[in-house]
Amino acid sequence: MAGIVQLAAWSKTLKKYRLVLSDEEGRLLTVISLDSLNDIGDVDVAAPADNEILYWNDGNSKWEVKALWTAAHKNTHDPEDGADKLDTAAPVKIGEA
User: In this structure, what DSSP letter does residue 39 have?
Assistant: First the structure.
């Protein structure tokens, strides 16, 4: 599943968690709706808050709570190593790519 990102997002309308995958092209795919965080395994987090998601961390093989915008930003590119032109570590001037 290289390039696949797994997220669990809270739906205020459905009052359920929805397991979502993001593929290599950035498309979001809803996989399943859940009534409880416990339905997806050993998850130990506080009650959901607006704009928070569970984010799967391959590095430690655990679900982590993240702000939605932080997780989305992290998975569109690596913002810290300067390896791509969108990195915040690499200054980019207007009109340059």
Answer: G
Secondary structure E strands in the chain: 5-11, 16-22, 28-34, 52-57, 62-67
Could you tell me which of 32, 35, 30 has the C-alpha nearest to residue 16?
Answer: 35
48 closest CA partner among 37, 63, 39, 56: 37
Residue 84: inside a domain:
no
67 part of a folded domain: yes
Residue-range definition of the domain harbouring residue 40:
5-76
Prediction pTM value = 0.34
At 75-84, the pLDDT tens digits run 444 555 555 5
